[in-house]
């Protein structure tokens, strides 16, 4: 096969890029190693920045999001038994976030791709990318029990942290930066209406907790746990009891219901530099991972895609390679800002198992400053609601 842009990965980054290129009349082929059922059902975060919402609407993927997504003007920080609201809209000139699960974003984009008839191959395992520094890079993949090769003008690796795209870059041409955190998140889905209208981020001596939602009848909740925690040690009653303790505030009650899904997610930060090797370009989790505290993962991938869409259009339709040549430097400026914000939110709100009383007092002082200082609250709101794309 031959195409203009080979896209590895049918997550939100790969599918959105394919959609944006299609709107410009640029052909692409999307290769996904997993089945359609797996892609459309894997649970991921669901906080969409204003810029992400605008891009999805503009490409025709916003109809169900606008109908079912939950618009939030603010978030709540809870510590010391008291609640403190950060008014995102007021502090950012009207920017908001929308709670709409990444799972649903992927379903919408898959439907658009399949309805258009453009190539989207599931169960197509990419083995390697070859000749990335030539004008004809090649993607070798396995599909239908046989090996195949896809030749393209450009290859975009949006295949996640464990994908083949980044691994295809020679070790001496790429550098990685990583930080692991001494805790993980135990996340649960529960068939119970949310106990809050907006997200609640709770900092407690026993650990962090987050109350989110997946709609008017489904709650999404998280607990800080040790990185070696075992799900078998967390029956439903223990989870609800611990959430009760960490969310405790006067006049507030946590609703309980059947837990339908649970998982433990390690916390880490990761960046690969550069995000371009010849005509192979990395996007999303293939290039960077942020701890989920700042709700930046999906939104950062969308920011990569917006840059790539413009850069590929310049190269393919106008013969101007400069935006692609500067893609990595431009993207990484935003990536490192998001990494810093996510790191700051994570260390601010989690209980560090190694912290002494002095460290805990410093953490409380920082929280107090955040809710007492208009400048500090504005900075948090601007970063949380997202920078313009």
From TrEMBL:
Pfam family, one: FAD_binding_3
All residue ranges annotated as the FAD-binding domain in the record: 2-341
Signal sequence bounds: none
Keywords: NAD, Oxidoreductase
InterPro entries: FAD-bd, FAD/NAD-bd_sf, PheA/TfdB_FAD_monoxygenase
PANTHER family to which the protein is assigned, alphabetical: 3-(3-HYDROXY-PHENYL)PROPIONATE/3-HYDROXYCINNAMIC ACID HYDROXYLASE, BLR0106 PROTEIN
Record-given protein name: 4-hydroxybenzoate 3-monooxygenase
């Amino acid at each position: 096969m031959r195409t203009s842009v080979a896209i590895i990965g049918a997550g939100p980054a790969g599918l959105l890029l394919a959609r944006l290129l299609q709107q410009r009349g640029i052909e692409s082929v999307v290769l996904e190693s997993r089945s359609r059922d797996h892609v459309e059902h894997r649970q991921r975060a669901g906080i969409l920045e204003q810029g992400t919402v605008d891009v999805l609407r503009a490409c025709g993927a916003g109809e169900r999001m606008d109908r079912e997504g939950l618009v939030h003007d603010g978030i709540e920080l809870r510590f010391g038994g008291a609640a403190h609201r950060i008014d995102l809209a007021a502090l950012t000139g009207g920017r908001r976030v929308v709670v709409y699960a990444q799972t649903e974003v992927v379903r919408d984009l898959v439907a658009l791709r399949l309805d258009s008839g453009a190539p989207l191959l599931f169960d197509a395992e990419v083995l390697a990318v070859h000749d990335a520094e030539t004008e004809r890079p090649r993607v070798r993949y396995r599909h239908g029990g046989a090996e195949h090769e896809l030749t393209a003008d450009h290859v975009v690796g949006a295949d996640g942290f464990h994908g083949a795209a980044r691994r295809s870059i020679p070790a001496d041409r790429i550098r990685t930066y990583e930080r692991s955190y001494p805790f993980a998140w135990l996340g649960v889905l529960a068939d119970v209406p949310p106990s809050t209208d907006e997200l609640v981020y709770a900092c407690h001596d026993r650990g962090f907790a987050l109350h989110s939602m997946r709609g008017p009848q489904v709650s999404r909740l998280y607990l800080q746990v040790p990185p070696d925690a075992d799900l078998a040690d967390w029956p439903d009653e223990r989870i609800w009891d611990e959430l009760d303790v960490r969310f405790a505030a006067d006049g507030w009650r946590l609703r309980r219901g059947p837990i339908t899904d649970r998982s433990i997610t390690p916390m880490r930060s990761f960046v690969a530099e550069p995000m371009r090797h010849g005509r192979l370009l990395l996007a999303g989790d293939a290039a960077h991972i942020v701890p989920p505290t700042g709700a930046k993962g999906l939104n950062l991938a969308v920011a990569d895609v917006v840059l790539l869409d413009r850069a590929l259009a310049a190269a393919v339709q106008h013969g101007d390679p400069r935006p692609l040549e500067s893609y990595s430097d431009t993207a990484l400026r935003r990536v490192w800002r998001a990494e810093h914000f996510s790191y700051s939110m994570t260390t601010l709100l989690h209980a560090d198992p190694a912290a002494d009383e002095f460290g805990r007092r410093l953490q409380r002082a920082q929280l107090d400053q955040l809710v007492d200082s208009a400048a500090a609250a504005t900075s948090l709101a601007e970063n949380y609601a997202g920078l313009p794309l």
